[in-house]
Write a structure and sequence with these properties.
Length: 99
């Protein structure tokens, strides 16, 4: 028996591809930070090993924060959840990049 969301040609629904791309991008963020870790350490004035703890903190935040936020917003309307999700980055102070 085929899945009702799948088309007759056997293709996966678009939402599956979007979720897969989102999961891939979220998973690769730790690798990006690892690649620029010496620059981050230099900018923070810390050693590479101490700056590397940022990767661990980010990973723990993703592990704990993702399911926690999913449960906390389970009963909220989806549109309100999306608006609330984008607020912290919107209100951050703007400062120029240092070179």
């Amino acid at each position: 028996m085929s899945h009702p969301a799948a088309s007759a040609s056997g293709k996966m629904p678009l939402v599956v591809w979007v979720l897969a791309a989102g999961t891939f991008l979220m998973g690769t963020t730790e690798f990006v930070v690892a690649g620029i870790l010496p620059d981050i350490a230099l900018d923070l004035g810390a050693g590479v090993s101490h700056a590397g703890l940022l990767i661990t903190a980010f990973a723990v935040g993703m592990i704990v924060g993702g399911p926690t936020m999913a449960l906390a917003t389970l009963r909220l309307p989806q549109r309100l959840t999306l608006v609330l999700d984008h607020q912290p980055g919107r209100n951050r102070p703007r400062r120029p990049l240092r070179r």
